[in-house]
């Protein structure tokens, strides 16, 4: 079994987008099945409250929401900027100052589906920590057993040593349950660590900065594999960390196990990031050998795109507010406009703004000012609410009403529901279009006629329109994209998975 592959499978489902030909029309075909239950593809609805409200009010609301709109021309411009930032990250002269770091990984080969064996994996993503046992059958089939553990907030921002101790404790608990602990076998362990790292080998990587709400002390600039292995040894666990990869790389690899045309890995979860297979001659920062295959997977760390103000022209006051009150102001600007950790908060800030401008919840003014309600509290509007609201079709707004009830708005009017849904749609559409523009840059750059993109992350998985909006946009940006969504690629034997949806932190 290839070591490159060890850490590549901590994913319970993979979705792929396939580029079929170089130009022409956009074709979408869906070959996935049951996982889409609850995923309703709604026909685009017009903002229908215009019938009911005073036209001037609507104009004012539209004006607020106009700041979120990004035209096709603007997106093409953003694609050009991203290309420039990618070149800066890949050049040894500019890498240090570059915002999009374009880290070379040590992964040169993708799997071919024949790899076999039992492997353990840890997946530290930002929202959940997952421990997995992976059984590779050798015929492109994989079986997973996994358990999700929550990382308490106190550990996320505490001493780094405690973080790794906690990870080792969870691993021990899982191995005990699976009868693997002290079995006499030392299991190879892959570590999917989804934070920006400068990789120094397959099993050696230094954290460059924490993101997504983590800020443990004593970890930045340290080798995280070493820190993990020390904690594993301290606990006397029979496992050895043999590889560390970013979640984007893990997703690409897991998808490649099924589909050899996979060349891009994309994450749309707590954060957002992408990786792709690049020719070595384009990687100025490469310091390894130039043997075949003359390619390496690049972990872009595209969440930091815009950290040098180059996306200033598209940022709104809501984006600025999200950024200022985050744990890492000025950092991860692209991520903060796209990913699950921030989307709900952007929506909340817009709702509050409209409320304060007396454009929303007009019939309920007497009940406002209850600052204890989630509406008034940072993180009070979960990103999963955006999905729920956008699942409503027609005029009942039963989901939207439920969500509004949850954030402390009782008996909203039809207009209120329409406006809230409109806000959610604009925010998620902007995010999907930005991600689509990034994807289009990669598809164009790879330039092959058949490219599969592995995608993972709850935002992509559960939001009812993200996928379609992103594909539309990347289809426009790239000459042609044919999209294939595959679901339920892997068997899941984990009842804890449901929890993913119910836990969110916004900093
Ligand atoms: P991680 O990024 O830690 O690997 P996930 O891929 O599960 O974890 O992503 C978690 C993020 O997904 C959270 O920020 C959460 O807000 C978001 N999320 C969870 N459920 C949904 C949903 N139903 N719709 C949209 N976003 C969701
Ligand atoms: Mg993840």
List the helices and strands and how they pair.
Blueprint: E1 15-19, E2 27-30, H1 55-66, H2 72-90, E3 103-104, E4 116-124, E5 129-137, E6 142-149, H3 153-156, H4 160-177, E7 187-193, E8 197-201, E9 204-207, H5 224-234, E10 239-245, H6 247-258, E11 262-268, E12 272-279, E13 295-299, H7 317-324, H8 333-338, H9 340-356, H10 383-391, H11 398-406, H12 414-446, E14 451-456, H13 458-462, H14 466-477, E15 482-485
Parallel strand pairs: 2-15, 4-7, 7-10, 11-14
Antiparallel strand pairs: 1-14, 3-13, 4-5, 5-6, 8-9, 11-12, 12-13
Bound molecules: adenosine-5'-diphosphate and magnesium ion (MG).
Question: Could you explain how this protein is built, in words?
Answer:
By secondary structure, the chain is α/β, with parallel strands linked by helices. It folds into 2 domains: 2-101 and 306-449 and 453-479, 3-Layer(aba) Sandwich (Hexokinase, domain 1); 110-245, Nucleotidyltransferase, domain 5 (2-Layer Sandwich). It contains 14 helices and 15 strands. The chain has helices at 55-66, 72-90, 153-156, 160-177, 224-234, 247-258, 317-324, 333-338, 340-356, 383-391, 398-406, 414-446, 458-462, 466-477, and strands spanning 15-19, 27-30, 103-104, 116-124, 129-137, 142-149, 187-193, 197-201, 204-207, 239-245, 262-268, 272-279, 295-299, 451-456, 482-485. A 6-stranded mixed beta sheet has the order 1-14-11-12-13-3, with helices on both faces. A 5-stranded mixed beta sheet has the order 6-5-4-7-10. A hairpin with a 3-residue loop joins strand 11 (262-268) and strand 12 (272-279). Helix 9 packs across helix 10 (383-391) and helix 10 packs antiparallel against helix 11 (398-406). It is globular. 50% of the residues are buried. Residues 1-51 and 479-507 have low confidence and may be disordered.
């Amino acid at each position: 079994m290839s070591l490159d592959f060890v850490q590549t499978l901590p994913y319970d489902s993979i979705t792929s987008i396939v580029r079929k030909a170089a130009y022409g029309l956009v074709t979408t075909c869906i070959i996935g099945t049951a996982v889409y239950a609850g995923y309703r593809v709604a026909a685009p609805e017009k903002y229908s409250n215009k019938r009911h409200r005073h036209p001037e009010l609507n104009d004012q609301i539209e004006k607020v929401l106009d700041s979120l709109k990004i035209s096709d021309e603007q997106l093409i411009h953003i694609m050009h900027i991203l290309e420039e930032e990618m070149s800066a990250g890949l050049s040894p002269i500019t890498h240090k100052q570059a915002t999009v770091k374009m880290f070379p990984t040590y992964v040169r080969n993708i799997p071919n589906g024949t790899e076999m064996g039992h492997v353990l994996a840890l997946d530290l993503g930002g929202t959940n920590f997952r421990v997995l046992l992976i059984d590779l059958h050798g015929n492109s089939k994989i079986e997973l057993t996994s358990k999700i553990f929550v990382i308490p907030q106190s550990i996320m921002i505490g001493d780094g040593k405690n973080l790794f101790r906690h990870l080792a404790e969870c691993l021990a608990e899982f191995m005990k349950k699976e009868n693997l602990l002290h079995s006499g076998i030392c299991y190879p362990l892959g570590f999917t660590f989804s934070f920006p790292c400068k990789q120094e080998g397959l099993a050696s990587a230094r954290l460059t900065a924490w993101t997504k709400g983590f800020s443990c002390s004593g970890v930045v600039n340290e080798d995280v594999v070493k820190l993990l292995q020390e904690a594993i040894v301290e606990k006397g666990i029979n496992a050895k960390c043999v590889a560390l990869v970013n979640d984007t790389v893990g997703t690409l690899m897991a998808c490649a196990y099924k589909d050899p045309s996979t060349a891009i890995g994309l994450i749309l979860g707590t954060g957002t990031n992408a990786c792709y297979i690049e020719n070595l001659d384009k990687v100025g920062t490469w310091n390894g050998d130039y043997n075949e295959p003359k390619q390496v997977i690049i972990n872009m760390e595209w969440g930091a795109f815009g950290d040098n103000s180059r996306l200033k022209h598209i940022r709104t006051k809501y984006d600025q507010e999200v950024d200022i009150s985050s744990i890492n102001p000025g950092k991860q600007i692209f991520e903060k406009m796209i990913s699950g950790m921030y989307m709900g908060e952007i929506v909340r800030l817009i709702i509050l703004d409209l409320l304060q401008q007396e454009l929303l919840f007009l019939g309920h003014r007497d009940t406002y000012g209850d600052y204890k309600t989630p509406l008034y509290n940072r993180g009070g509007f979960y990103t999963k609410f955006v999905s729920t609201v956008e699942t409503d079709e027609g005029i009942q707004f039963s989901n939207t009403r439920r969500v509004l009830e949850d954030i402390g708005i009782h008996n909203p009017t039809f207009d209120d529901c329409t406006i809230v849904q409109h806000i959610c749609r604009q925010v998620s559409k902007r995010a999907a279009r930005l991600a689509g523009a990034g994807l289009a840059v990669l598809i164009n750059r790879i330039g092959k006629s058949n490219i599969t993109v592995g995608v993972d992350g709850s935002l992509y998985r559960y939001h009812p329109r993200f996928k379609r909006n992103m594909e539309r946009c990347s289809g426009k940006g790239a000459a042609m994209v044919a999209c294939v969504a595959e679901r339920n690629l892997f068997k899941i034997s984990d009842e804890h998975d449901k929890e993913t949806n119910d836990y969110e932190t916004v900093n």
